[in-house]
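Input/output pair, single chain:
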Amino acid sequence: MRTMELLSKNKISYIKSLQQVKFRQIYRKFVVEGYKSVSVFLNSQKFKPELVVYTGEEHKINHERLKGVEYICNEVAMQSISNLVKPTTVLAVFEITIFELDDLIKDRNPILLLDGIQDPGNCGTIIRTADWFGIKTILRTAQTADFYHPKVVQATMGSLNNIQFATLEDAKVLKDFGKKLIGMDMNGKDINFLEKENDLVIVLGSEGQGISQEIEMLCDYSICISGNGGRIAESLNVGVAASILLYQMMGSIRS
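Output:
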């Protein structure tokens, strides 16, 4: 019979601190909420669980990895540690898995680079879409939302488990590894001109600022998603644009 401890005030403070990026970096931990999402993370083996919190015995997850790490709290305490407007009944803390940048970019398969995309919801959507189309590596610049931000984690619906991540301090290293950088830009060539080749890095910038000048200078060429001539919309949401791009890119490479 598995036993659960009562969640202490110290652990409540600790879990709440993980809503801030500096504490996620210090402790190398992040939060996952919801029965389904927590179950996905437990089954993947990629992230080690540190603790799981329930609001009642009836919400316990039956999993061998949970021995000795389960806690119980009331709904008020769960509200205080949750990042959701309507908290769920299960919350877990997992260890962040660190990937070495050099190891990731040696892979010749397509890579996504998120440059200055600050909205966590958009980042989570892109990660989930990348997982759908078989992208295994996503890089971020320092100006991009933290991949372990609670809203990013929530938006990925578990797809973090299928992606490898790293932060890119200097984009020039991609060129050192022979990568071809393709930027998405309103003035680029139509997406149908995307070439079939290995070692591609597709760069997605923010909707407001686009790709940073530093990375834009390293791009071999740019592509765009052509729209209707009479449109009112100035641009596509970056998550939507990523979905169209990945459908085109991965379909092109598979064909």
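The chain has a mean pLDDT of 92. The chain has two domains: 5-95, 101-254.
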